[in-house]
Amino acid sequence: MYYTKTQSPFGDIILTASTQGLTGLYFTEGNAASVELSTYKENNDHFEQSLTQLREYFSGERKTFDLTLAPKGTNFQQQVWQTLCSIPCGETKSYRWLAEQIKNPNAVRAVGGANGKNPIALIIPCHRVIGSNGSLTGYAGGLSLKEKLLKFEGAI
What we know:
By secondary structure, the protein is of the alpha/beta class. It contains five helices and six strands. The longest helix is centred in the middle third of the chain and has 11 residues, at 48-58.
């Protein structure tokens, strides 16, 4: 397991990876405290493509990411995270929409829980999910960061 740190217009980011792919993207202002880096080895070689694509995203040149992802989670979480990747940059969707997309319309709360456990923030765009009434709800990086990301993408 490997990690690297980089800067972004929205604060420092920690990236983690295994030999299978990217396992985490954490804004240090939010949920990075839950990342135990003592189990990782600092090594930038595993992150060249990720860092390039992040620079392109933050400069406005890139709207989607094309990276090998390897987030750890349950089958349900994986299904939710995969569906999150279908939300285009500049758009938002509701938790209800997400539940309907995975063909489980009664799982709105479970979808919210899976969304909140997304380990690869930004690249798996959990910040693009909002309340059905249009309100910004929960984000591991904090609602202020969520609002900044959605404004940056032109979604709000």
